[in-house]
Design goal:
The protein is of the alpha/beta class. The protein has helices at 16-30, 43-46, 57-84, 98-107, 116-119, 126-135, 161-169, 171-176, 195-203, 220-231, 253-260; strands at residues 5-10, 33-38, 89-93, 111-115, 140-143, 152-156, 179-184, 209-213, 235-239, 265-269. Strands 3-2-1-4-5-10-9-6-7-8 form a ten-stranded mixed beta sheet, with helices on both faces. Helix 1 crosses helix 3 (57-84) and helix 10 packs across helix 11. The longest helix is centred in the N-terminal third of the chain and has 28 residues, at 57-84. The chain is elongated and about 60 Å long. It starts with a strand and ends with a strand.
Length: 270
Amino acid sequence: MSWARIMAPLAGVAADRGLLASARILAEGFDAELACVHAPADMADLMPWMGEGFMGGVQVTALESLKEAAVEGRHSVEKLVAELGYARAKAVSLDSPVWAGLAMEGRLSDVVVFDSAAARGKGPLAECFQQMIADEQRPVVVARPGLKVGGTVLVAWDGGKEASRALRTALPLLEKASSVVVAGAPDASSRSFDLDRLVQFLAARGVTATARVLTGSGDAAGLLLGAAREVGADMLVAGAFGHPRLQEFIFGGTTRSLLNSDGPSLFLSH
């Protein structure tokens, strides 16, 4: 099992360059296709504010501005992809309805890559991050400095279905890791679990791992981040927790702390 298609949503702005560099590292590690998906502001989102059957000068100007921005963004993405120099990178520009296009591109990708800003609810791709991880329940990588394939991976485990889904989806990443550490804090969880059973589960799938019991009954995220620092983790794999989305997705405390931290890159699955 491997990852064959990695998706990087892009806004068509200068900050895309850093995200693309990280996405290339991930794609190269698997010799995967890199789908560089331009997600412009959607004109359909503006229509409810136009007034039924009425298009005044301000509304027309707003629509024209969005169209121009979309064209400029598409050209920017195409240029960045050309400059990236990765043979398997492909620029994809979405038309309205953008959200539907994003959903389909995500469903046809193995993993979706974002930067820390989007994951923290900042910038033009913040809503896209919420859509991918919450609505679409796609596995995502939050790329941070030091991202690499083949380094040390720390797996957060509490025996829950979210952690199980993240672990199974991340197996291609674990198979390439130089070291895998499974970590859990029994006193900080309401569940009963055995880390040694997870080590056995991974061994049966060709992944050698070691167990690390985290002591303490306080903040689980703090314990995990501390363990990540101690083992020199390049990636932290965890299940994403949160409340159902109403107008915006509200992450649970542990996930929010991981997203707001300055720790290693994250692999999350909700």
